[in-house]
User: What shape does this take?
Amino acid sequence: MAEEQVQFSFTMKFEKTHSFAVELDAHDRLKDFRKWFLFPKHNGTEAVYFLGNSLGLQPVSTRLALAKVLEQWAELGVESFFKGKDPWLDFHDQLVVKLSPVVGANPAELSIMNQLTTNIHLMLASFYKPSGSRKKILIESKAFPSDQYAVDSFLKTIGVDPKEVLIELHEKKQNEHIDDADIIDMITQQGDEIALVFLGGVNYYTGQVFDMQKITNAAHEAGALVGFDLAHAVGNIKLELHNWGIDFACWCSYKYLNAGPGAVGAVFINEKFHSDKSINRLAGWWGNNADNRFLMKREFEPSQDATGWQLSTPSILLFACLKTSLSIFEHAGWNNILIKHELMKEYLQYLLEDLINGDDTGSLQCLTPASRGCQVSLYFTQHGKIIFEYLTQKGFMVDWREPDVIRLAPVPLYNSFSEIWNFYEALKLILQEIKK
Assistant: This one.
């Protein structure tokens, strides 16, 4: 399957009928991958799970993968790192090869390690390099809070007042997204003072996808380094981290990558930094050159790739979960997933526009711009929580964000076009009932 390109064998305009959704499903050559995942139940049947942006579903094979690691541990103990059918020391190399096409990076530029916020701290230690008047960090005002906490606390740790260093990007109006042009204008205007641009590649609240390539180019032209939090991007949108020239990126693996709650995170570090001795880092023994790691030398000698930023012995159980999920991506084919994603995105947008245009009260708005991934954020000027509760009662698992936003993210690997249609029908019905 991975070598093939999914092609929907017909071309036609979208239709607002259930039969049309069924026809889309019939021509979906990824539809059988739905069986590779476990769905929560609602009243004895599978719930409509539109929460890939929060926690991806559990692959059926995850339980077996964990059992194999536990069995190997029981049989071989510490020798499991070196012996057995699947030695644990091989896991990392296998993972980065599988992950490489999903993020558009060379395997050597990837390191599977820690969790997201820990990795943000590690990357700040290496890539925030203030010099003279160039000491500012450009971030979003509405970034995911953990990003803001990490940046604030990191600056305080090195004796810097965040208020003196941070440049925060604000939307022009409430519940609007930030234009890429505004970001680039800010970089151009204050580029002489910016040391680091650190943004979310996909905004967690609105679902907006930023033009990371243009932002990276603008930052580099201004003399700044650039990094991205890709928690809501990896496994969701097409990425070309190496070709875009991004300096570093961090992400988690429990959303669109389906590696489980608290799954191991990962980083991208551009190969141009791998042997750069001017880069500071917080070192740990697992980042030491693998050839002499077990010699236990006093002096740290980093591996000459992204693994040189690793700290500790990895969790093989977490590695096994990620390996299971990435194997599904490999079987399905990343390009095939992206093709279905585009069609699902357009179909959902088509149906939502019908609801919005038919809502003469103006109570329903879409916060998410055309540049987006799987996620759509719907803003309700009234009755939002009631609508959310109604959808939940009907078996739709979506996300409520205070004070008035419902987020949903149909994903290609395990959601169907019929589920999107059913959501549209259910939301249309509740809007009509409220209007009465």
Q: What stands out?
A: The longest strand covers residues 194-200. The domain at 18-38+334-435 is CATH 3.90.1150.10 (Aspartate Aminotransferase, domain 1). The chain has two domains: 18-38+334-435, 66-331. The chain has a mean pLDDT of 93.
